[in-house]
Structures are given as structure tokens and as C-alpha cells.
Amino acid sequence: MNILGIESSCDETAAAVVENGTKILSNIVASSADMHAESGGIIPENAARQQIKSIIPVITSALEKAKINNEKIEAIAVTSGPGLIGSLLVGIETAKTLSLLWNKPIIPVNHLSAHIYANWLSDKKSPEFPALALVVSGGHTDIVLMKDHGKLEWIGGTRDDAAGEAFDKTARLLGLPYPGGPAISIEAEKYMTKNPKTKLSFFPRPIINEKNYDWSFSGLKTAVLNEVKDRELNNEEKQKIAAEVQEAIVDVLIKKTLRAVQEYKPKSLLLAGGVAANIRLKEKFESAISEHVGKINLFVPPIKLCTDNAAYIASFAYFNHSPVPWQKINANPQLTITGQV
Ligand code: KG4
Ligand code: ZN
Predict the structure, then answer these.
(1) Tens-digit pLDDT profile for residues 80-93
(2) β-strands 23-31, 131-136: how paired?
(3) Closest residue to atom 10 of ligand 1, CA basis
């Protein structure tokens, strides 16, 4: 079954054709991140305007790249939330129109739980259930227990800023470009290469020892602000702070996730969301999980499937096939990972 996925929840406009939920026939992403880099962050109206410009060319190019026409598409999957209302509406209205014109079913998709499906889009064997999924994106940080497709139980999350937001906001304080995650990790890498033995433990790790699966990242922003205010940092100092910030975020994500692994004993641990593109996070997870070898498989999607794209939207729709009449699909900017509006 070929599904056309459409994603427009934030600053990426994306379309993909995926066969049977696992094989990517095409995956096209147009990003307006460069424009937001100039303004230092996303201005929602500008993001929505850019969505309007990109949506049809992106869908056309996804069909062309997959060498497929609309007759061979069996369903249309579209992100219905969470996200920026203006951006979401562009994808949703386009999907509804195509559904009507082509007479195809339409499947509304929760962007957050869909991120997890980047782990089904590889040649490796698929994750086994029960699985624990850590979803770390720009706006959300959640850990969920997946007993099966469609059976998600939320077990913890951030109490304030998301992990990606912590990267973005501290990068801004350091004068690094948006999006902050990749920028911080590049600077951090420079510091760690020059100082491989230095222990990175400068910033606090809030609530790391609490017996729950929650995080708090807003204090990190304040701690960085206190370090940088009224100072002119040289490159070396910036790189050191970037390395310390990255380590603080990575450490707390790993510690709480491993707690959950110990309690729930899943067969698979799945990382997902833009922050899962972070190499340090991946490497430290790989080494932490090596103690559990034989009991659990760690899945980390390739970098370009971690950040927003439509391939995982189509994959989610295949494994959670629940078409609804196009008249009933609405944008839900506040949707949670388990589907609460
Ligand atoms: O999942 P995503 O592409 O969009 C949302 O759904 O939010 O996540 C975007 C977030 C941004 O905060 C960005 O800074 C972060 O993912 N990110 C990274 C890296 N690449 C993207 N964070 C840390 N390290 C990276 N390499
Ligand atoms: Zn996302």
C-alpha cells in the first residue's frame, strides 16, 4: 500500500510516498529554517506563508521522485497537530482537497507519535513490542510505553521547556544560529576534540535523581544566561559552554530513560524527534545500553529522518490506519502525544 504523507506543522513543508509503512519511495523536505535563522527564531506568520509557497511543489516532486501518479496512491496522511495553527492548516486543507479530487481516504496523524515511526523506515528489522520511546523535539519531550501500534501510555515528560527548546534558547544566548541543536553540537564537538579528558559537569542536572520520568530544562537557560551576561565570550569559552550545555541535556535524558528501561523492561528502546539527531546523545545511549545487551535493542533513526519530514507521517498512517471523512479533520495545535486535544 502506497501512502502519500504530508507534513506542515512548523517550519518544514514535507511530502513523502511510503510503501507498506517501511519503504521510502520519496521524501521531500523544503525548510524555511534559513529565513528563521535571520530572525533568530520562528515567526509563525512567516512560516505559514512559506508553507503556502512550498506545499504544491513539494507534493508534486514527491510523486515525481517516487515515479508514481495519484492513481497508485491508496491513502493520504496528513499531520493534524500539534504545531503552529497557520502552518498546520496549509497541509490539512491541501490534503482535504486532494482527498476530494482523487477520491482517496485521508488519515489524520499526530505529529509526535508519528516521529517514533522514523524507526520503522530502515532496512533493519522493525522494533519489537513492548517498546519505550523517547520523543525529543523542538516543542516536546515525552517518554511513552508502546505496547503495540496505537497503544501508547505516557509515563513522563518535561515540566517546562522541551529538550530542543533548551538547545535553541541556549544557542541564542551564545550568539549561535537557529536551529540551536546542530549549532551547539558543532561547537561542543570542537571543545571535546581539544579537551577529550575534561569532565563536563558544570551545569546543574535538575530533578535527575527524582524517582519519576520527568525533566526540567528551563533552569539551564537561566544558568547559561548567568554565565554569559555582561561578558564578551571568546570562541574557546563559547565552545566550552556549548559542550557543557549539551552534556547536561544528554545526561538527564539518558538517566531518566534508563530508569524507565529498568522498570518496564522493554524489548526495544526507540529515540525520535529532532534532538535524536544529536550524535553525543546517540553515542552515550549506545554505551549506556550496552549493559543491557541481549535484552533490549536500541533504535536511533538516521539524522534526516529524526528531524521533521513526511515519511514517518506516512509510516504512522500505515500502522495506525484510521481514515476519517475529510469534513471531520481539523487542526489541533495543542494535541498531546497520546492524542488528548
Ligand atoms: O522534531 P523536530 O525536527 O521539530 C519539532 O517537531 O519540533 O525538532 C527540532 C528540534 C530543534 O529544537 C533543534 O534544535 C533540534 O531538534 N535538533 C537538535 C539537533 N538537530 C536538531 N538538537 C540537538 N542536536 C542536534 N544535532
Ligand atoms: Zn517534529
Answers:
(1) 999 999 999 999 99
(2) unpaired
(3) 138
pLDDT value, residue 157: 98
Query: What are the beta bridge partners of residue 107?
Result: 77
- pLDDT, mean of residues 169-178: 95
- The yes-or-no verdict on residue 341 having pLDDT over 80 is no
C-alpha cell, 92: 490539512
Residue 138 Cα to ligand 2 middle (Å): 7
Residues 198 and 251 both lie in one domain: yes
Q: pLDDT-derived band of residue 71, with 50, 70 and 90 as boundaries?
A: very high
Looking up cell 515528560 gives 157
Is 261 a member of any domain?
A: yes
Which atom of ligand 1 is nearest to 307's Cα? 3
Query: Is the domain of 211 the same as that of 249?
Result: yes
pLDDT classification of 96: cutoffs 50, 70, 90: very high
Tell me how many domains the chain contains. Answer: 2
* CATH classification of the domain holding 274: 3.30.420.40
Same domain, 137 and 105: no
Q: Range of 254's domain? A: 126-300
Contacts of 320 (CB under 8 A, 6+ apart): 107, 149, 150
CA 206 – ligand 2 centroid, Å: 25
Instruction: Measure 103 CA to ligand 1 centroid, in angstroms.
Output: 35
- Residue 239 corresponds to which cell in the numbers above? 565552545
